[in-house]
Amino acid sequence: MARWLVISTAKGGSGKTTTARNLAVAAAHEGLRVQVVDTDAQQALARWVARRPEQAPLIACEAIAIAEIEAHWDRLDAMNADVVIVDTPPGVESSPGQMQALLRKADLVLVPVQPSDDDIESAAPWMALLVRLDVPAHFLLNRVRRGSKSLDEAKLGLLETGGRLAPVEIRDLEDIRRSARAGIGVMELRGGNGTDDFRGAWAFVKAELGMHAK
Q1: Per-residue pLDDT tens for 10-23?
Q2: CobQ/CobB/MinD/ParA nucleotide binding domain spans which residues (predicted)?
Q3: Residue 101 class from Cβ within 10 Å (0-12 exposed, 13-18 middle, 19+ buried)?
Q4: Residue-range definition of the domain harbouring residue 18
Q5: Any idea what the CATH number is for the domain that residue 25 is in?
Q6: Which end of the chain is more exposed for a tag (fewer CB within 10 A), N or C?
């Protein structure tokens, strides 16, 4: 049965879709069968998959409204996939019951957060919700400047919430944005700056999910 990775947070613009597509690419390049599910009404992840070059490793995609996700669980579990990566809309306001059910189903939830006071303030209660739901979850710092004071302050602020922090960060890099426009991941961009960031993030996720490359 596929392992479920859910990318979710309370605040838009935190890097959920960027995280989902680049982790999907990392998994696909290891020979894993990857199914992504876009539950965000904007469907940015689904549009990115549609732009992927024919020669790129296959990443299957479905766009499913969060309100309808439970009706598709058995079918998605029965698919020939090793990992299901779900990109979610921010917050729980539109479909709170369905969102919480999805979070409970997850084998791991990543909570992308930028190193800003606004992001940390919104991410803290989201992590508290995940703790109450007894869901394995980690913050993933995103769009950071390594060595900056803001990064150190963000790490401290997130740890003070009581949540767990992934041991890798994703830098704020132009190549990550460029690759998205081409329908690829940064590791598929020749000489892409940011490749090691997502390789590290995927290695962490894979270990948390108990998965192995093929």
Answers
A1: 888 889 999 999 99
A2: 6-178
A3: middle
A4: 3-208
A5: 3.40.50.300
A6: C
